[in-house]
Design a protein that fits this description.
Pfam families: ABC_tran (PF00005)
Number of helices: 11
Radius of gyration: 22 Å
Protein name: Molybdate ABC transporter ATP-binding protein ModF
Organism: Neptunitalea lumnitzerae
Keywords: ATP-binding, Nucleotide-binding, Transport
GO molecular function, one term: ATP binding
Largest sheet: 6 strands, mixed
Strand content: 15-25%
CATH architecture of the largest domain: 3-Layer(aba) Sandwich
CATH class of the largest domain: Alpha Beta
CATH topology of the largest domain: Rossmann fold
Bound molecules: adenosine-5'-triphosphate
């Protein structure tokens, strides 16, 4: 009988590097026979399949006619796992498979992995101790891309100081009661109902969490608000006091929104320092095309100070550990104190300690700014203190929305 192996990693590790080392047998303690067929479940592999499908215009997973790219995050993971297991590999390495999965799907996956572990050698690489399935007995920790004895003490490279966040250079002005108003919004894709009569009003300065299981339409709803989805037009959807499709440009809307999604971090591969990354938030561009003003530099320095990173202002962003990169990206999105800050699953891939810090940082931003915050997640993040939660619940006629007020 085979058994699963757990590797719990901190954010000093790069999971792709860990996987390469496992494949080339650099960890003899795993007693792995690398001559056997090894399959890998990871964001990198998923991305490669998406690209393959686009280039060759063929359905890679062969299960449905829907392109992988248009599947929801959770649906993509389920499809990839089914595809890999069908090949019956001797070894299956899984890089954080529970990320992006809702609670029900996490339970199902854990049970499924327990069954699979009797026939396939599983190596489970995780960043969150809360995700560890009970059936796994052989455990290691990974730090700086090496295996060490199991411990769940992970460390963070940033802190959140008890000093006020920097104030905006220009204060926000609101001439409306609601920042966002959705009135009876409906969405279907190829006759499949996704959103059913969604009514949701968000006032300026509120802190909202948007939750719902995989495929319930969270991303669809967000993309309508940001203007990335044409399905918002012609509906009763108001943003910053204007009805969608009544002359405002997508650019007008976007420049008042700070956006963080984990995919965004991967776009910054150039030689930008931590300071430049924060200042870049004033210019809505990836590179720094304008010379920053003294006030902008001062604000960036203050944000770095809040994060205890004042001595790392000249460190290249791409060389910073993942937790520090996330904090910088959030400071960048906040530097202008946008009307709306959207955080799409910002703790994905973070270890427990860095996830806690990020949550502390977001609570602080919510308490000390007038920016409206929309925190999107399929799981309630421990310690997060939103004013309200908007929950999508799937039905056969599309998802319906419910509001849960805190306290
Ligand atoms: N362009 C598209 N064509 C067809 N179906 C789509 C398209 N975009 C999204 N969908 C479907 O709409 C549903 C909602 O997807 P959406 O990405 O909004 O869900 P989600 O709540 O963000 O899910 P997750 O938590 O898994 O990320 C899914 O079933 C998805 O497959």
């Amino acid at each position: 009988m085979k058994q699963g192996i757990l590797i719990i990693h901190d954010n000093s590790c790069n999971t792709n590097v860990l996987i390469e080392k496992i494949q080339s047998n650099e960890f003899p303690q795993l007693s792995l026979d690398t001559s056997q067929q090894i399959r890998i479940f990871s964001p990198k592999v998923l991305e490669a399949f998406i690209q393959e499908e686009e280039i060759h215009e063929r359905n890679v997973f062969g299960t449905s006619n829907q392109p992988i790219k248009t599947l929801s995050g959770g649906e993509q993971k389920k499809a990839l796992l089914n595809y890999l297991i069908a090949a019956q590999p001797a070894v299956l390495i899984l890089d954080n498979p529970f990320d992006h999965l809702d609670i029900q799907a996490q339970k199902e996956l854990s049970n499924r992995l327990e069954t699979i572990a009797t026939t396939i050698q599983l190596i489970l690489i995780l960043s969150r101790t809360t995700d560890i399935p009970k059936f796994i007995k052989q455990k290691y920790s990974a730090t700086n891309n090496t295996l060490v004895a199991y411990t769940n003490n992970n460390t963070a490279n940033t802190i959140v100081k008890d000093i006020a966040i920097p104030t905006p250079i220009e204060p926000q002005e609101y001439g409306y009661n609601y920042l966002i108003q959705c009135k009876n919004i409906n969405v279907t894709y190829q006759d499949k109902p996704i959103l059913n009569n969604i009514t949701w009003n968000i006032k300026p300065g509120e802190f909202w969490q948007l939750t719902g299981p995989n495929g319930s339409g969270k991303t669809t709803l967000l993309s309508m608000i940001t203007g990335d989805n044409v399905k918002g037009y012609g509906q009763e959807l108001y943003i910053f006091g204007k009805r969608k499709g009544t002359g405002e440009s997508v650019w007008d809307v976007k420049k008042s929104i700070g956006y963080f999604t984990t995919n965004l971090t991967q776009q910054f591969k150039g030689r930008y320092t931590a300071e430049q990354m924060i200042i870049g938030g004033f210019f809505d561009a990836i590179g720094l095309y304008n010379k920053p003003t003294d006030v902008q530099k001062q604000k960036a320095a203050q944000w770095l100070n809040v994060l205890g990173m004042e001595n790392q202002k000249n460190t290249l962003f791409r060389n910073l550990p993942l937790g520090a990169q996330r904090m910088i990206m959030i400071a960048r999105a906040m530097v202008k104190h946008p009307l709306l800050l959207i955080l799409d699953e910002p703790t994905t891939g973070l270890d427990d300690h860095n996830a806690n810090l990020l949550v502390t940082f977001i609570n602080k931003i919510a308490a000390e700014s007038n920016t409206t915050i929309l925190y999107v997640s399929h799981r309630a993040e421990k310690g997060l203190t939103p004013d309200h939660t908007f929950t999508l619940t799937k039905t056969s006629e599309g998802s319906i929305g419910n509001i849960i007020n805190s306290i």
